Predict the 3D structure of the following.
Amino acid sequence: MSSNSATEPAADMSGIGKSRAAIDRDLKTIIADVLGLETDQVDQFDADTGLFGHLPELDSMAVAGLLTEMEDRLDIVIEDDDVDGEMLETYGGLLAFAEAKIIEG
Amino acid sequence: MLMEWPCPLPGGGTSNELLLTLKQDRAQCVLMIPPLFDEHNKFRRQIVEVMRRLDAAGIDCVLPDLPGCNESIRPLAEQTLANWRNAAQAAIQHTGASHMLTFRGGAMLGSGGLPGWKYAPQTGAKQLRGMIRAAVIAARELGKDISSDDLMARGRTNGLNLAGWDVGPQLFSELADSDEDPPSGLTEIAQSDVGGRGLWLRTEPDEDADQADALAQLIAKELAAP
């Protein structure tokens, strides 16, 4: 079975927003910066990596800092009602949320 | 050197506030405006690290306390952005500063007519949003259902205590409405120009020698340029 999609470079989506790969990169940098984690550790994150309740660095005050930095650097607005367990449960969930917000513009 | 400076008060009179100086009457003197609230605590050591490096490069530096900040005994709840801007102006006059370097939210006080730099500027609206979000999360953990909108409305009318910072209604509204830096003529220095992670993201006050070197070098280089 061959799947090119995993190895293909992210499609050039300039003009219509950031590619998933670019958002992934930005989000990992933000998480590493806010939680003071090593870049190597964050680079290993996949869709199933547990965040809230799994990473000791991510307590509720760190959540506030993380969301504020995401707003700043991804140029999105996060409402109170957006913040729920699902969004912060796994890295995949947070990435999907960030993507949806960026598309929403 | 630790000194005091007479900071004018809005109702008349003055308040003696702390003034940290590394000054030898050299040609250039940079006045530091720290970030606001908790970020001030986190950055203070780093600001002094930058001042030491500028001093070593032959540049005078001063770091005045503004009323309600750092060691000041003036109540924070009575302070406003407008009064802090006036205080910053008075500090410029008192110290004879030739340039200004603002940190993060300090950029909001940077419209004093002096040339200089704003490091990683942050608007009042964004700073307030972060503090409100932390308050909402903390309240929800205690089982209280409050929203950011509720807190914003309360803050504008009555002021709000946010994580121990007593923000009066006028300051609250000024911050909420400050979604752009005031026109100041200050040159922006982004965190990416300095490198590394912003110290405001750390949980405790800290310093970073490499970042202090980079920031001081940027400024010393520009001051040395003809």
Notes: Residues 1-14 of chain A have pLDDT under 50 and may be disordered.
